[in-house]
Amino acid sequence: MRKAKAAETRAALLEAARRLFAERGFLNTKITDIAAAAGRSAGSFYEHFADREELLGALLAEMEDSADREVARAGHPREHDLTDRDQLREHLRIAWSVFREHRAVMVALFQSRVGAGPGDGRAWDDLTSETAVFRHHLEYLRERGHRLPGDPELVAAAMGAMLGMLGYSMLTRAEPVGDDTVVDTLTDLLLYGLAGPAGTP
Amino acid sequence: MRKAKAAETRAALLEAARRLFAERGFLNTKITDIAAAAGRSAGSFYEHFADREELLGALLAEMEDSADREVARAGHPREHDLTDRDQLREHLRIAWSVFREHRAVMVALFQSRVGAGPGDGRAWDDLTSETAVFRHHLEYLRERGHRLPGDPELVAAAMGAMLGMLGYSMLTRAEPVGDDTVVDTLTDLLLYGLAGPAGTP
DNA sequence: GTCTATATAGAGATAGAC
DNA sequence: GTCTATCTCTATATAGAC
Fold first, then answer.
1. Any transmembrane segments, and where (chains A, B) (predicted)?
2. Rounded to two decimals, what is the model's pTM?
């Protein structure tokens, strides 16, 4: 079975790439490294992917599937109330757990995007499109008369920036971090800010 | 005067690098590009800098000087109260204006660090050391009995992550952004959170 | 499909003349 | 100090045998 063999090679390449991306990152991982780690030749790589970016795209698709499944499990109507502590926390918890579970892809994506350079404002476009969920929830709040700190798109982007950068920084450390602690802290910071809930000393 | 001529070349290289970093970023700017843009030869570059990183270090030093001056102008005792809106806002305003003024250096630094890869947890170290000022102020608050959303180091890092990533994303767009609006929004978000100040509908 | 071998190109870095 | 010329290395990508 040729097909089975080919699929096996493809899977091996993806798996090897995932491991190497997590270890040394995307930019420092060469195509020859991936092929070698998968026990295949460099030439064989190109039978499956046009280049490194395409392989990253495949990994990203896997990650999105898995993230969608995790979100779907909980359900996610637009009417979520992000000023409800439990609901906000659940959003942050899921984001953080996806980061952790797909650390390699996250690191690679982060590197690939930042590495592409400033030129075209792609960083902003990516940030807004990936925080669209937050934005929708915030718009919903605003429609209901709640006063937000600012424009929903900007606030959503700020939340995403915090999550993304903190995730990259913390999840590329050697020492593991207490996920619950992080999620709790971010929840309280985003919900009540530094001042804390009403009546805090 | 040989010295004067050399200093001139050095300055020209720095200036060219600054321009190119802002346009296409650090990783996409080759040493030969910098030399050419400065009207010098590639060989001459090495008379002044050992490599691209060293040049970036020189730009960074300039930026830090300028930032220190801006901070010093206002004074910055440890006893700042970040739960005071004006004081928090002033901190954010200064950070944002430094980003804007030294966009090229910021972009380059960001790229250089992310590009270095996950390996050694450098991202976390950099983030914590650069948010040390926030941390100190937060520790001061905690000592005075104020209840924070979490560990001062973590909260400070989260604030810095938000600022840094949002700054990178927004300041690498083509369309300019209203700085005051951004600073106001971040101030309110960090001070009172999504829930808003006590008594908000 | 997979391999080995190789063409090609880019960029860092240095040697030596001026 | 600066330039031109060049060496060297690395990585992408392809050609052709099996």
1. none
2. 0.96
